[in-house]
Amino acid sequence: MSHMTLPQTDLDDAILDLIVTYHDLNPLGVDELTEEPSPLDFMRYVARNRPFVVRGAANEWKARRRWNAEYLTGVMRSQPVNVAITPHGNADSVVEDSQRSLHFVKPYDTTEPFDSVLRDIQAQEADTLPSGPIKYAQTQNDNLRNEYSPLFADVPASIPFARIALQHAPEAINFWLGNSHSVTALHKDNYENIYVQVLGRKHFVLLPPVEAACVNERMLPSATYAHVRRREQGEGRGDGGDAGDGEVVIPKGDGEEEEQLEMRPDDPAQEVPFATWDPDEPEKRPTQFSRLSRPARVTLEEGDMLYLPALW
Amino acid sequence: MSHMTLPQTDLDDAILDLIVTYHDLNPLGVDELTEEPSPLDFMRYVARNRPFVVRGAANEWKARRRWNAEYLTGVMRSQPVNVAITPHGNADSVVEDSQRSLHFVKPYDTTEPFDSVLRDIQAQEADTLPSGPIKYAQTQNDNLRNEYSPLFADVPASIPFARIALQHAPEAINFWLGNSHSVTALHKDNYENIYVQVLGRKHFVLLPPVEAACVNERMLPSATYAHVRRREQGEGRGDGGDAGDGEVVIPKGDGEEEEQLEMRPDDPAQEVPFATWDPDEPEKRPTQFSRLSRPARVTLEEGDMLYLPALW
Question: Which of A39, A47, A167 sits opposite B46 (nearest CB)?
């Protein structure tokens, strides 16, 4: 480590050594498989806590053949579904206010008829710079066996290699519907996750848990976007103040009333630990270890399956 | 953690939390199985880095039926074998000298005819307080496929569940021969290990890797026992000085010459990291975390098999 000048302490040295050694001993990318692993093969990935992608694993699923906007609308119709609404598509994200303070901001969560959510998501997809807030149906409450249960028959009830290896049926099966404006902030989950791309495409940027020291986790005051209406001149606003980046004004046709998403501190106030470094903007808020990060990037195409290990 | 007074820093708090949480989430002892696990079952233990014992797993091995002192002597005869010799049976141990300095001391390693090694080990077993140094055949250089190769046919060439799960034949297969005076100091290995008790009995005291902060690892000057002969009056001694606990005088019949094991610093001097806390003497050299240690104790009887995960 004699070439390193930044580490100041034994602990820093140890962290540096851990990250560098991890990358010396592990491949940099995500393993690419052409067929589903056996339960034993899968368990080897779980043991090493390493992700893999299976190209085309879901090609034979009914969902792959059936799902499109028309089919989904025909099945779900105007059933109410949860939808997360954010100014720019960033759900659960770190937002810097005009005083340059950081906040952890959750979407405005509401319930809308499925057909109108799908229509909005499609319409916004066409806009390069959408004028209104971004909608993303992304609850993680086992929604495919609940509010989207009419669609559940189109997917397998479990992923056999994972169920057998982990000796557990899936705790939650979630259906997500978004568009290319939806971005999920860098985060980690305590679950083993199998993600399947049925339609469209998703870009993942994955960091191994050993890079925890790279992501500059901080305690941030939590806030939630609130949906407020106001007159042009700003009458009737909520708690006031300049919401900075957290404010979006939505012209409603040519009427004088507007819809607006406003960032509001949670009440009672609370702080949550959250990563403030983003590998896609590495110069912002780095730690001394961020430059050691080796993000694994993988794009899922239709039919692809990703094993996302716990804590990645 | 408000009941804790010892932790001084965030790091101490985090270490304490890690150890306590680990024990909250894991059983305290070693899982007991009655038959060998499948490769998939085994991989689940590897993934969780948890030990298990399979009672009687080796009962059908030829070694279990054949091996005894007479058979081993008949096969191995006077073939030269490596033997580790220490004053009290502690191989690779931490020794406090008369100035209360700690040393990491390696055995005197030599080569002797197998039949005489076995005879000495048996004879010392009969003594409650053996007068001479303790012998232990315990090399880890794949000796069962080398110096003890005549015995290799009596054991399986590999443990199938482990070979299949890990996709690797054993890197080393070792035969150890000792008696009840042999004690191995607390240490860890970077290998997945399957230990089988063919004859006799062995007591294991196992700590999970998360308890690293409990064992008070320090850099210790390394030394090796050297075998010297001297006259009664101490003429012809090596580097002199009081070797304290590291010196044992062996009366050789009623002759005037004696054999002696003397602790000698390695040349060139070097330091090695080694645990200085012993869960069997918990009041000696503890860290603030040692009291959180929950050693798993397991005794292997003849025919039992232990999976000793890497770093335990």
Answer: A47
pLDDT digits (tens, 9 = 90+) for A101-143: 999 999 999 999 999 999 999 998 888 777 778 999 988 899 9
B14 touches chain A (CB under 8 A): no
Contact B225, B106 (CB under 8 A): yes
Write the pLDDT tens digit of every residue in A279-300. Answer: 999 999 999 999 999 999 999 9
**A67-81 residues labelled b (16+ CB within 10 A) or e (exposed):** beeeebeebbeeeeb
Q: What is the ipTM of this complex?
A: 0.77
Q: How far is A287 from chain B (nearest CA, A)?
A: 17
Does residue B311 sit at the A interface (CB-CB below 8 Å)?
A: no
Which residues partner with B260 through β-bridges? Answer: B228, B249
pTM score:
0.83
Lowest mean pLDDT among A218-232, B64-78, B202-216: A218-232
Closest C-alpha to B184, from B209, B214, B206: B206
* Tokens matching residue B174: 């070792």
Q: How many CB atoms lie within 10 A of CB A303?
A: 19
Question: From B38, which residue of chain A is nearest by alpha-carbon distance?
Answer: A40
Alpha-carbon distance of A48 to A310, in angstroms, equals 11
Nearest Cα of chain B lies from the Cα of A309 at a distance, in angstroms, of: 12
B2 versus A286: the higher-pLDDT residue is: A286
Total residues belonging to chain B: 312
Dihedral sign, Cα of residue B32, residue B37, residue B42, residue B48: negative
Identify the pLDDT of residue A250: 52
Q: Measured between CB atoms, does B20 come within 8 Å of chain A?
A: no
Q: Which residue of B has its CA nearest to A165?
A: B40
Residue B144 confidence (pLDDT) above 60: yes
Q: Tell whether B11 is within 8 A of chain A (Cβ).
A: yes
Size of the A and B interface in Cβ pairs below 8 Å: 24
Q: What's the rounded Cα separation, in Å, for the pair B92 and B186?
A: 9
